[in-house]
Amino acid sequence: MILSNRTVLITGGATGIGFALAKRFIAVRSKVIVCGRRADRLNAARHELPGLITIRSDVSSESERLQLFEQVASDHPDIDILINNAGIQNRPPSVMTEQDFATYRQELAINFEAPVHLSLLFAKHFINKPNAAIINISSGLAFSPLAFMPMYCATKAALHSYTLSLRHQLRDTSVRVVEVIPPKVQTDLGGVGLHDDGVPLDTFADHAWHQLASGSQEFGFEFSERNRLSSREALDQIFEKLNPR
How far is it, in rounded angstroms, from Cα 177 to Cα 218? Predict the structure, then answer.
C-alpha cells in the first residue's frame, strides 16, 4: 500500500495506536485528520504534531458520525484512507452483579457500530479512487477472549467478522480492506497503567507500518499473531489459560 501523500482520517487518533500511526503518515507527507471526544487530547496532539488536523466528534453517536463524514468529505474530498481505530475497553463487574447496561451500549457503539457505519459511508466515497483503503483495528482478543471484559472482546470479534465480509464485498473494486490485530500494547486503553506490561507502542506501530507498506491485508504481532493463526483447539487451550477457574 502506498502510504505517502495520502489523505487519512483516523478515529480516536489523538492518542495511542492511532496517534502513533498519525505521526508516521505525516512523516511521509500525508495529510492526517484525527477525531476524538476530548478537546484537551486533540489540542495536545495538534501541539505535538504540527500539521495535524483535528475534529471533535463522538463516534458513538450516529448523528455525529454522519456529521463527521459530511465535514471530511466536503473539506477534504481527496481523502482516500479511513482508519477505524477508536475504541474503549471496560472491565465490568460479574454478570451476576447489578449494573448499568449503558456502559455496554457505549462500548458496542464505539467499538463496532462506528466502524461499520463509517465504512458504509466512506466506501461509496472511495469507490472511484484508485488506491483507497479502509483499515479496521481489531484485537488479538477477538480470537480468544478475556471473560472479565466480555463486551470488548465480543465487539472486536464482530469487527473481525465484519471486516472479512466487507473485504469480500469490495473485492472487485479499488478499495482495499485491511485488518490490524494488536496484542496488548502500552497505551492507556481501559485506564492508565493497565497495559504497562504490553508491547511498546512504537514497536507495534513500526511493525504495523511495515505490514501496511508491504500490502498485508490482515496481521497481528506476537500474541495476537499467534491467536490469528491458531486452530480452534489451540484457541480453546489459550482461553483456558487466560481464564483459569
Answer: 9
